[in-house]
Amino acid sequence: MAKNKKKNDLREYTTVPEVVRKPSISTPWVENHKTGTAMIFLSLILLGIIAFRFIPISLFPEAPYPGLTVETEYFGVGPEKIEEIITKPIEESVSTLGGIEHLFSVSEEGKSKVHIQFDQNADLEIKSLEIRDKVEQVSYKFPRETQKPIVLQYDPTQKPSFIIVPKKLRLLNINRNNFV
């Protein structure tokens, strides 16, 4: 009898309780109203098709990019020197303008780029003139070999969406000979 009781005790501890899943509230309704469910899905599909036809889609939507770039070249000079001589003075001068959201720069071998991003409703023509004035105020301090700073307006639609590069140089030579 003691042996039997031990086996039963083990069964009590080794049995895994059954997990009872409660059906969601919508499941019985869907099962009972199959036609209504089909009509809801068909109407959603129809609304999607109608919306697709009327929503304009373009590769480059016309959204104003309120940003300008001041680019200055000083050939033969390293990035550290470019940052010290050109980038920092331009940043300090331009940062006094109002309406700037972001101001960041890139100093590389022989070139300084200062990117200025304005509020969405900023008039870039006016901001461009203001930036030119600010840059002219500090550009007289630059070395003579420095190129005149250029203020550029970035337009994302002017960049190519993709570039195709041939894998083999032979294809390049064939194409070059055909067009020359």
TrEMBL record:
GO MF, any single term: xenobiotic transmembrane transporter activity
Gene Ontology terms: cellular component: plasma membrane
Keywords on record: Membrane, Transmembrane, Transmembrane helix
Keyword Transmembrane helix: yes
Transmembrane residue ranges: 36-55
Name of protein: RND transporter, Hydrophobe/Amphiphile Efflux-1 (HAE1)/Heavy Metal Efflux (HME) family, permease protein
Domain of life: Bacteria
Pfam families: ACR_tran
